[in-house]
Amino acid sequence: MDETPRVKVMEQVAIDATGAVLGRLSASVAKMLLRGESVVVVNCEKAVMSGDPSYLIEKYHQRRIVKNKANPEHSPHWPRRPDMLVKRIMRGMLPYKSAKGRAAFKRLRVYMGVPKDITKFAKAERFVKTNLGSKQITIQKLSSSLGYSR
User: Which of 1, 12, 53, 104 has CA 20 to 30 A from 117's CA?
Assistant: First the structure.
């Protein structure tokens, strides 16, 4: 009677973020991660954020300049690179300060473009909102306005 614990291995879910509203996508990805699934997000730089572009640029610029005067190393870090920025935004949807949230965050992978080892991925059509008009900005444009250059 060898009672070895069985490890539940979940399938890896790959999602194409092209044209998807980032907040809607992040909420669904966070739920998948908390259920124990491993999630890969590709083409993250083509995701969009809804809202006035100038307001969003200013908002994320202000987040980047917040520093702890006593010890700047303890300050929050907001990256410029699109994949790291999307990953940081998705981290905000998770209970990151608990063990469950950190374990879920470790199962998240975010890529610019599509890596060679990922061949099948689902389109994120249910997160695409078509009537945003001019009140949107892509993650690529937001990152470049924060100082990222490829």
Answer: 104
